[in-house]
Design goal:
Elements (H helix, E strand, L loop, with lengths): L6 E6 L6 E7 L3 H11 L6 E3 L3 H6 L5 E3 L5 H13 L14 H15 L1 H15 L1
Parallel strand pairs: 3-4
Antiparallel strand pairs: 1-2
Length: 129
Amino acid sequence: WKKKKVWLWRAIVGVSRRPLGWELGTRGDSCCKRLIDRVDDGECVFATDDWTGFYRLLPEDRHFPGKDLTFPIEASNSDIRHRLARFIRRTKASSRSLHMVHASLKLTHHLQDDSVLQSYLNPLLSIFS
C-alpha cells in the first residue's frame, strides 16, 4: 500500500451528511467519473474544492467550487478518520486489503442511517428495560 496509494472519493448530502456513495481508486478523472455517474440524478448540485478535474467532469451550471462550501464533506471525512483507524493520517494504522477498506466504509455508512442503527439498538434496549 505504501507504493500503491488508494484515493477515496466520497459524495454526501451536504445538509445531513448522509453518504450517497464512494469510489476507491486513483486520483485520476476515470475514478471520479465513476462516482459522479453513480450519484448524479441530473438535478443534484456539486460543491467541490478547486481540483481541476471537477471542471472537466461536472456540468458547469451545477458545479460550485470553493473551500467555503466543502465544510460538510470535510466534517464527514473527519468523522471517518475518527471512527476508522485505517483512515487516520500519519500513523502506523493502515490496510493491506482493499476489500477491508471497502467493507469498513460500507459498515460505517450503513450505521450512519438512523433507522438502521435503531433497528440494531431496539433489541438491545428491550433486554435492559
